[in-house]
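2024-03-11 09:14:02 INFO worker-7 job=invfold-0412 stage=load source=structure_tokens
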């Protein structure tokens, strides 16, 4: 008898792996959105001794440094731990970071907590998508990626609404609880990951052939066993691909200098460019600083800014879900180009509206309405294409 997994086998097992991977992405989206709504709270600013805007930006951005280091570390730790255990390790680190942040009474402590949480987040996000892809059928991968991105925005939306609700709470609980709430997602992953299979591709690469056949059989379902012809065929295909990959190996330097296979190099460059576009499109401004922008650029009060940011997150979530229905129908290239053009147009309109308002050449109230409207259009445009296609 092989090992029993959560959900048993077949489609049910795939669903549970998807639930675990989705929880990681919801976790990531929550972490993206929560701090931007924390730094505008009066009690938080008093506790941190009213840090300058530069220091607020630093507290926010050091999280990304942690994410980078954490993601890069999985190049070495990912194969050692395996996919589920790597996610458990990353989630534990995030929980430690959450405790440090929630207990903070000064900027240095908060920055340490941000970096620690970023380390775990980088590990998780670098692992969950790979694990999902290596345990899913090829025909469903495009839509599964869109579902993952929608889950990320679900977490982002949760953070906006939770911080809005707790903004009415007295004292430091208004910001300490939303930061501590990150631990909830760690606990969910503790209940899921230990009972789910590792990637059969990774198991074969590590020489664990018997375990790999059991996982393939479990994913196949329909009564398949490790000795079933279909399981043996899938095993042989994966092993053959891995063997071919190791016939000729290239260093990272050789690939970057163009000495590797042309197809691999083109895919690397295109993938890196698209991911970079994803990050520099302005989405991090809206993810991390939406409430802050509404308060400081449009002169809205704190409550209205929080409400608009929360409503914007719902808009973002809705259109990221709609991408599920168009990603396979219209193709990646058309969707990416249309989405990018729309995002560009939004930022042009927002910049013009704010510029006219700042120079006193128009009605600030009406121009603020225009800017907010196009922030919402940007969320919709980004969610429909640039969000998911690069992945």
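2024-03-11 09:14:09 INFO worker-7 stage=emit residues=391
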């Amino acid at each position: 008898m092989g090992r029993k997994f959560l959900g048993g086998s077949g489609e049910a097992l795939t669903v549970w792996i998807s639930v675990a991977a989705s929880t990681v992405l919801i976790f990531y989206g929550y972490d993206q959105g929560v701090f931007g709504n924390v730094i505008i709270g009066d009690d938080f600013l008093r506790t941190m001794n009213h840090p300058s805007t530069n220091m607020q930006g630093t507290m926010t951005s050091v999280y990304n440094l942690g994410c980078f280091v954490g993601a890069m570390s999985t190049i070495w730790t990912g194969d050692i731990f395996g996919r589920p255990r790597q996610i458990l390790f990353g989630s534990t680190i995030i929980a430690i970071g959450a405790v440090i942040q929630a207990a903070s009474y000064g900027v240095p402590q908060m920055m340490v907590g941000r970096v620690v949480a970023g380390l775990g987040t980088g590990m998780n996000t670098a692992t969950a998508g790979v694990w999902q892809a290596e345990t899913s059928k090829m025909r469903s991968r495009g839509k599964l990626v869109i579902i993952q991105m929608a889950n990320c925005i679900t977490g982002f939306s949760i953070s906006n609404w939770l911080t809005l609700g707790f903004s009415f709470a007295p004292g430091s609980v208004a910001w300490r609880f939303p930061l501590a709430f990150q631990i909830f997602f760690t606990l969910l992953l503790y209940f899921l990951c230990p009972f789910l299979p590792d990637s059969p591709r990774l198991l074969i690469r590590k020489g664990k052939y018997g375990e790999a056949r059991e996982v393939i059989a479990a994913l196949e379902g329909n009564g398949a066993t490790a000795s079933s012809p279909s399981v043996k065929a899938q095993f042989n295909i994966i092993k053959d691909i891995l063997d071919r990959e190791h016939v000729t190996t290239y260093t990272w330097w050789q690939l970057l200098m163009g000495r590797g296979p042309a197809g691999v190099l083109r895919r690397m460059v295109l993938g890196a460019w698209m991911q970079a576009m994803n990050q520099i499109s302005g989405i991090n401004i809206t993810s991390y600083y939406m409430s802050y922008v509404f308060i400081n650029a449009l002169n809205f009060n704190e409550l209205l800014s929080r409400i608009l940011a929360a409503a914007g997150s719902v808009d973002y979530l809705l259109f990221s879900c709609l991408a599920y229905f168009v990603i396979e129908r219209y193709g990646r290239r058309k969707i990416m180009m249309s989405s990018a053009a729309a995002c560009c147009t939004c930022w042009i309109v927002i910049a013009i509206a704010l510029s006219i308002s700042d120079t006193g050449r128009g009605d600030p109230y009406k121009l603020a309405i225009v800017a907010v409207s196009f922030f919402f259009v940007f969320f919709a445009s980004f969610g429909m294409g640039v969000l998911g296609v690069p992945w």
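2024-03-11 09:14:09 INFO worker-7 stage=report msg="The domain at 281-391 is CATH 1.20.1250.20 (Growth Hormone; Chain: A;)."
2024-03-11 09:14:10 INFO worker-7 job finished
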